[in-house]
Amino acid sequence: MSPTSVAPGSVRPAAEVNEQIRALWLRAGGSLSAEERAEYELLVVEWAAAIRGEVVEAA
Q1: Model pTM score
Q2: What region does 45 belong to: left with phi over 0, alpha with psi -120 to 50, or beta?
Q3: Which end of the chain has fewer CB atoms surrounding its CB within 10 Å, N or C?
């Protein structure tokens, strides 16, 4: 699933996004292509949003 296929406003759990980030790094062998770097950046933004959402829910 690419990060662009996630519906705007929907937030996956941070753990799920983190797992996708780890899988991307494993597939890339530790060196990201330009396309993989763009995917990584989108995933990090999504992960940060998920973390913020989890912190707000916990408060």
Answers
A1: 0.75
A2: alpha
A3: C
